[in-house]
Design a protein that fits this description.
GO terms for molecular function: transferase activity. InterPro entries: Acyl_CoA_acyltransferase (IPR016181), Gcn5-rel_NAT (IPR045057), GNAT_YJDJ (IPR031165). This is Acetyltransferase. It is a single chain. 24% of the residues lie in helices and 29% in strands. A five-stranded mixed β-sheet has the order 1-2-3-4-5. A hairpin with a 2-residue loop joins β2 and β3. 28% of the residues are buried.
Length: 103
């Protein structure tokens, strides 16, 4: 994660994990059960394009999921690609996830 995002807090709302950077948002829509968190869609406002904000919100969210003790279901293509690029995060993916073997 780029250093400018390190001290920005991750905010969990009813439907999203989000960060705010220079008045703009990067977020991930999610669904949560007692044992799993499904990440559905990642988006950053156009003003944040190319800044690394989307990767930062993903990394912060993965840390949150790990600390919560829950398992991840990475339905979002961006999150899935992030985990393929950073395979150390496969440790929090639920082994029952259909594409687990493709990570």
């Amino acid at each position: 994660m780029k250093t400018e995002f390190e001290n920005i807090p991750l905010v969990k709302t009813e439907k999203r994990f989000e960060i705010e950077f220079n008045g703009h948002y990067a977020f991930i829509d999610y669904h949560e059960t007692s044992h799993q968190i499904s990440l559905i869609h990642t988006e950053a406002e156009p003003e944040l394009a190319g800044t690394g904000a989307a990767a930062a919100v993903v990394e912060k969210t993965l840390h949150y999921i790990e600390e919560s003790g829950k398992k991840l279901l990475p339905f979002c293509p961006y999150v899935f690609a992030f985990i393929k690029k950073h395979p150390e995060w496969k440790r929090i993916v639920d082994e029952k996830f259909n594409a687990y073997d493709k990570l």
